[in-house]
Amino acid sequence: VSLLPGLHPPEQRGGTALVIDVLRATTTATTFLERGADAVMFAPSIEAAHALRASLGTGTLLAGERGGLRIDGFDLGNSPLDAAAREWGGHTLVMNTTNGTDAAHTAVQAAQHVLLACLRNAPAAAARAQALAQGGDITVVCAGTDGQVSLDDCYTAGVVVRELLGPAGETDFMLNDSAQMVLALTARWPGPQAALQASAHGQRLLGMGDIDLAFADLALDVTFCAELGVSDCVPELRGREAEGLVFR
Ligand code: MLT
Prior knowledge:
Blueprint: E1 16-20, H1 25-34, E2 39-42, H2 46-56, E3 60-66, E4 69-70, H3 80-84, E5 92-96, H4 100-108, E6 113-117, H5 122-133, E7 138-142, H6 151-165, H7 177-185, H8 192-198, H9 200-208, H10 218-225, E8 237-241, E9 244-247
Parallel strand pairs: 1-6, 1-7, 2-5, 3-5
Antiparallel strand pairs: 2-9, 3-4, 8-9
Residues 21, 23-25, 65, 68, 78, 97-100 line the site of D-malate.
């Protein structure tokens, strides 16, 4: 486990990475694909997102946030509930967010296979990583918040590690110290909802729900992000289009 994107252990380069930004980028990306989007593309910047839309043309929508709210000129924010509200067939969603999309761009520099994980797809994401890794290294990469380690991502990483270990908790894996730490975190709260609500990012989203009712209620986003194992959709890096990472 890597508690922040830049901490990917050098000895595990070339393996499989599971990138987590549970609140909310990887949950939202998972939900777009689950609801039929042709692809989700992670752009490295707002400018790159606009450039991708210009080159991809009709059917391309921009989604992302700054400070939790929709970016000016973007079609959508970063709400997984908005992503769940309709079907996206015929559309490619180009996303840029404060931390999550950058975390994937960093992970790509080190890993051969890159998957997006969240609580909703944690069991499926762990299973897919194991299938891809074929006994090789798996790194769970936490996006964190503005360069700080975040409880919400670390808790989710612990859940993913638990899934990788399987029901008996037995493993052929060598767990690094970070993996043992996040695993211990999963026993600290009665469940994902309590853990996400205890995190600083969860607290911020819960508070913002009241600020601007024009946006989806962000408190409901937290509840949605905390649902464990309800999705079999695992976004997987399929290539690049200009500067964008293409997940399907
Ligand atoms: C991020 O990338 O920092 C997050 O997804 C922020 C959020 O929208 O909650």
